[in-house]
Amino acid sequence: MTAPRTTRSVAGPVTTPRELFSARLRQTLWVELRLAEEVLPPAVGQARATALRFGFERHLPETRDHAKTLRAVLHELEAPADPEESPALSGLVLRLARQPRRGSTSSRSGSGSAR
């Protein structure tokens, strides 16, 4: 699947509560699409515990429905329905990417070669 299309910002500064609400909905849409397309499908395949795998499998269609609902709400508001990147999720993903994985040899003290 392809990554959700991203718009970096609204077409201008946010000046009203309605514009802020619409922007937050577009960011939430981006998060839901990212979960449905990039996060949950691999999680289903990687889950070892049956209950966890079942939870991911059940959550995937719910997440897709959330995205459809968000698009419908944006349509009703007559607001652009293009996903807008969420700084919160992007920051979290970046922070997690910088942390060593648990159990990796690079995260154990005393591992690696001496210089």
Describe the structure.
The chain has three helices and no strands. The chain is mostly helical. It has one domain.
The parts where pLDDT drops under 50 for at least 5 residues are 1-8, 107-115
What integer value in Å does the Rg equal?
19 Å
Mean pLDDT: 83
Q: Spell the H/E element sequence.
A: HHH
- How large is the count of helical segments? 3
Q: How many E-type strands?
A: 0
A few lines on this structure:
The protein has three helices and no strands. With 115 residues, the protein is mainly alpha-helical.
Which short descriptors sum up this protein?
115 residues; mainly alpha; 3 helices; disordered N terminus
How are the SSEs placed, and which strands pair?
Layout: H1 17-46, H2 50-76, H3 87-98
Helix pairs in contact: 1-2
